[in-house]
Amino acid sequence: MSAAASALDALKRELGELKDFDRIAALLAWDQQVMMPPDGAAGRADQLSTLGRLIHERSTSPELGKLLDVAEPVAAKLDPDSDDARLVKVARREFEREVKVPQDLRAAITRTCSESYPVWVEARQKSDFAAFLPYLEKTLELKRRYIECMAPETEPYDALLDEFEQGMTTAEIRPIFARLKEVLIPLVRAVGSSDAVDDAPLRRQLPVAGLREIEQRALAAAGFDPDAFRLDTTVHPFETAIGISDIRLSTRYEVEGLESLFSSVHEFGHGLYEHQIAPELDSGLLARGASLGWHESQSLLWENLIGRSRPFWQRFAPDLSEIFPDQFGSLGSAEVYALVNKVRPDFIRVEADEATYSLHVIVRFELEQEMLSGELALSDLPSAWNQRMHDYLGVEVPEDRLGVLQDVHWSQGSLGYFPTYSLGHLRASQLWQRIASELPELPEEIARGEFEALREWLRENVHRHGMKFTPAELQERVLGGPIDPEPFISRLREKLAGIYGQALIP
Ligand code: ZN
Description:
mainly alpha; Neurolysin, domain 3; 2 domains; 3-stranded mixed sheet; 21 helices; binds zinc ion
C-alpha cells in the first residue's frame, strides 16, 4: 500500500471507530426510551456519560489531529467532490469545532443539562417558571461562554445556529422570518376563526388498534421495510439510526385523532433519509443527514406534502372509513383532506398546523436573541412570551405550562435549534416544486399508494450524499439557490383557498 493510501486509511479507521461509539451511544439511548425498566436509569446515565467522555477524548485527541495533518495533503490531490476528499474536510471542521471548547466548559454544560432537565419536567407539570429560572440563567451563562470560544465573525447567535445548521446565519434567517410574519399573521387571523371546517372527528382519542392498522397500511406503502426498520411506542416520538440498515422509529397513540399517524409518517421521513444514504458511506463520519434543517425537510415532506395531500387521502380515506366506521364512515377523501389541514391557532408548537407552525418558531427565535443579548430579563420571559403569542397567533396563554415551559429544548441546552424546523418547512416546499416538475405522474401514483419513484428521487438527489456537502452546498446542488419562503407561501395559500374559499385568503 502506498503511503498516501495508508494515511487516508488510518484516518478512516479512527473515524470509523468513533462512528461505532456514536452508534453504540445511540443504541443505549434508544434502549433507555424503549426497553429499559425504570430502575435502570441510574446505571444507564453512568454508562452514557462514560461513553460520552471517551468519544470526546478521542474526537479531540492530538492523535486525531496528526492523522488529519497527514491525510489532508493526500486528500488535496483528489477530486474535491470525492467521498474521501469530503470526509477529510468534514472531519477537520468537526475536529476544530470540538477542540475550541475547553473540557471544563463541556463538562459544565453536560452537568447543567442533566440537572436542568428533571427540574424542567417538574416545573412544567406545576406551571412554575420560577423553579426553572435559575437553571435557564445558568444555561444562558454557559452558552455565552460557548459563543466566546467559537468567536463567530458575525452575530453571537450565529455560533448557536451553527451547531444545528452549519453555516446558517441570523442575518440570513431574519428577512425570511419577516416575510413569513407578513404573510402568516393575517392569514392565520383570517382562516383561524373560520368554522368552515368542523374537525370534531379529529378532536377525540380514536381506538388504538385502529390507529395501528391505518399506520401499518400507510407505512407499508411508503416503504417501511421490516428487515431494516422498527417502530416502537414511547412517550415522545423520535427516530434514530443505528446503521443505514437499522432504523428505529417510535410513536405514541394517546393523542387526539390521527396525530399518531402523522407522527409516524414524520419519523419515517427521517428514517428514510438515513436508510438511503449511500452504502459506501455507512461506516464513517458522513453517514448522517446534512443538517437538522435538511432532516426536518424530509420528515415534513412526508408528513405534510404527502400525508396531508389530496392524493394520499384518495388512497387512504376508504381505509379510514373501513377501520373507523363510527368516526369516518360517512366521510369522503375531500372531507378528510379538509379536516387534516384545518388551521387552528393554539398554544402548543408540536400540535401546530402548517400555517401556524412557523409563527411558534419565530416567537422562540426572537426571544432567544433578546435573552442572549440581555435585552430581555429572564424574569420577564413569560410575559414577553405571552405577549408575542397574542400578537402573532391571537391566543391568550393561560399558564406557563402551555407557554414558555412547553418545550424540552432549553432544559437540554439547545438554543438556536428552533429555526431549523422552519427551514425544514421551507425546504420541503422548495423540493416539492422541483419534484412536481420532474415527476408529473406522482399525484396519480400517490393516489394508488405507489411511492417508489418519489423514494428514488429523494435517494438520488438528497439522501445518498449523507453529510458530504454542507447544508448550503446541498441547497445549491438540489435547489439551485438559497432558502426561499415563496414556494411554501404560494402552496399554503393555494391549499387554504381550496379548503376555505379564495375570498377568505388575504
Ligand atoms: Zn422531525
